[in-house]
Amino acid sequence: MNASFPASRSASDGAALPPIDLLIAAPRGFCAGVDRAIEIVERTLQRYGAPVFVRHEIVHNRFVVDQLKDKGAVFVDELDAVPDGRPVVFSAHGVPKQVPTSATARGLDWLDATCPLVSKVHRQAERQVEAGRHILFIGHAGHPEVIGTMGQVPEGAMTLVETVADVATVAVPEGAPLAFLTQTTLSVDDTAEIVAAIRARFPHVVGPRAEDICYATSNRQAAVKAIASRCQLLLVIGSPESSNALRLVEVAERGGTPARLIQRAAEIDPAWIEGVTTLGLTAGASAPEALVREVVERIAEWRTITEETVTTAEETMVFKLPRQLVA
Question: How many domains does the chain divide into?
């Protein structure tokens, strides 16, 4: 898809704006898990009325969170902040098993917005522990998804591995059979290197039958690879807390293309694109398309844009809503 913004736009001095080619990656932006999580909060508000409480940010995007706040969602860090009698939604990243248990014990109505692909990893963790295996979990310390997944099994049943270097020094229970699992929003390339190191050190380790890194993460990284070599700079729309958005920056930079993470168009410094003739643009899985268009409009204030969408995959995935919200 190619589109040119009107060449008649003029700079303040009356001169024509210099041209720029804008390559927009596809797929980009919202994935099926994010769509589902946001819809769960919106439908919960419709069913119960405001306020509806959400444990942690439903997804890592300030624009999305603020929109839901305006509709009556209240974001809290822990269940203790949820008043009796009000519903609570668990974020798309997943929660430790004790959280819904505690909510049930309090008699709270709760809805689980955990991405089904994250829930799949939770079930895999449970099965591996039931089979007597110790799990090496590839992920980033402190990320909500990692906390939620490690909270599915007894303490000590899972060991976090963040880098290839960690594999060489990780201590595992002597004689215990091993399995590995991964966070769903990791770098495809980095994870492949870590898995190779795990298999080299622990030849009998059991891995998942299918890739744990989610389709949306893989697709967005592949789309960045397709445009990065053609760009002098890549802009990635996403939150600093968003693992998948940060990975998009890394993918571009690994290929030699400078990249900048931005949350809103207002953060763009026009000096960044001085001398740039081809600019890349993508969005992490928690960033709505409205922010992509906002960035395009911002760039158009300084340059005459020829826009091209570069599509590397078509996404048709849709996840079912919780039964409470369908009836």
Answer: 3
